[in-house]
Amino acid sequence: MAHIDRRPGIRPRASMGRRLDMAARASFPACITVVLMLLTQMPLQLPGQAALLPAVALGCVWFWSVYRPGALPPLVVFPIGLAMDLMGYLPLGVGAFTLLAVHGIATAMRRSLSRGGFTWVWIVFAGAATAASLTIWLLVMLLSFRLLPPYPAIFTAIVTIAIFPLLAVPFAAAHRTIADPERA
Amino acid sequence: MIRLSIQARQALIRLTLPVLIVASFGFMLLGKADALLAERARTALADGLAPIYVVLLGPLGRIHAGVAETAALWDMRDENARLRAENEKLRRWQSIALALDSENQRLKASLRWIPDPDASFVTARVVADAGGVYAKAVLLSAGPNNGIRKGEIAVDERGLIGRVTEVGNRTARVLLITDLNSRIPVTLETSRAHAILVGTNGLRPRLQYWPEGVVPQEGERIVTSAEANAFPANLPVGTVHYSSSGAAEVEPAAMLQKLEVVRIFDYGLTGVTAPDHPTPGRH
């Protein structure tokens, strides 16, 4: 939020082009999340493909909430969650709640996470992802009044944890380059 | 913009997360109270996204074709030998089938059999996986005025895949026979006993409620039953396979994992229309 101005002083008002550039960079995390979520819906004919949607959504929200929470505020996480509900045929609100909770955990633990390095971020994410997929499972059961086997939830958690590095490596590069408003 | 003090602004920012969490619970209640709302939102979103899916399918199709081509080149000799053997076998079957067909026609003619009405069908491409972790369905792209209606029957080149549950302007959603909410009246082909095929979200749906004294045989063919006037009789569904725990399951004849093109048949059946919303728990 309150980001520190590294070069204090009076500067001319940013030009239109520069402001557009900054806006594009700031919206990169939200846009890439939505695009990746759309891609998981393609008929890729992978076994267990359904687990990719929550996996990608959770991974994206976790990464950007830890490294650039300003670009992914709760007001953006909420519609992403609703989109996940609609695309993944979950009861409305379940994905929104889960992603907001994950975002809340990430922002609350930001200080400890950013000091610990990538492995620590991943380990904590593993815990958060497991809790998130169990939450989705419990909420789906609660809202449909029916017992469901727990295997899909466990499978989703494993997929989510496993693909996080695949998301995080390109995201880390983007975080330093195209997603950095300072570079506009 | 309204000018607020820094403290007020920070308090507002801190408030958004709890307020939105409460809002998501509100959405859960809303989705429970008005099931049609979620369905309409889903159909609208699918209609909006369908053109994007169609565009993305182009390169994806080329990649799939390339991979398939390489694999085909790799084992062409084996494949050729296998196909020759299969051809041999199929030719024998063809003569049997032709003989049976002509016999069937003669018998029907002497019985004054009322023929089944011819079904009209449309063919549509599968553009997206419309299921989720807890649902099994596919999204079809069909142009405007496609004439697809709820409750019509989706078939691939091998067998039944499911029924149409939601229809939008450009899309239709087909609930697969493996979905948790799928219940299909079927007939065991050898014993002609009726049973219900119940989806479990797994790869193989389960067979239930067959009459006493009949045991589904391993490998027995399962076809749809015209009971309840929801399906035409004798569409191939799959074969019986007992799981390791001894439950009678059905190996679907259709390639549910690799659906590309699907035919939607209109048999004019109105016995049971698909539920407005696939509410879990409705049997």
Topology:
The complex is a heterodimer of chains A (184) and B (283).
Chain A: H1 16-39, H2 52-67, H3 74-87, H4 94-108, H5 110-144, H6 151-176
Chain B: H1 6-33, H2 35-74, H3 76-111, E1 120-129, E2 137-141, E3 153-155, E4 160-167, E5 171-176, E6 183-188, E7 194-198, E8 206-208, E9 221-224, E10 236-242, E11 248-252, E12 261-266
Antiparallel strand pairs in B: 1-2, 1-12, 2-5, 3-4, 3-12, 4-5, 6-7, 6-9, 7-8, 9-10, 10-11
Helix pairs in contact in B: 1-2
**Which percent range describes the beta-strand content of chain B?**
15-25%
> In this structure, how is the largest beta sheet of chain A organized?
none
**CA(first)-CA(last) distance of chain A:** 18 Å
Under CATH, the topology of the domain at 183-253 in chain B can be stated as Thrombin, subunit H
Tell me the series of helices and strands of chain B, N- to C-terminal. HHHEEEEEEEEEEEE
Structural class call of chain A reads mainly alpha
In spatial order, strands of the major sheet of chain B run 1-2-5-4-3-12
Q: What is the residue-averaged pLDDT of chain A?
A: 87
Helical segment count of chain A? 6
The low-confidence runs of chain A, each spanning 5 or more residues with pLDDT under 50, are none
C-alpha Rg of chain A, in Å?
18 Å
What's the main sheet of chain B like?
6 strands, antiparallel, barrel
Oligomer: heterodimer
What would you call the shape of chain B?
globular
Please give the most extensive interface between any two protein chains, plus how many residues each contributes: A-B, 50 and 49 residues
**Number of beta strands of chain A:** 0
Number of strands of chain B: 12
Total of domains of chain A: 1
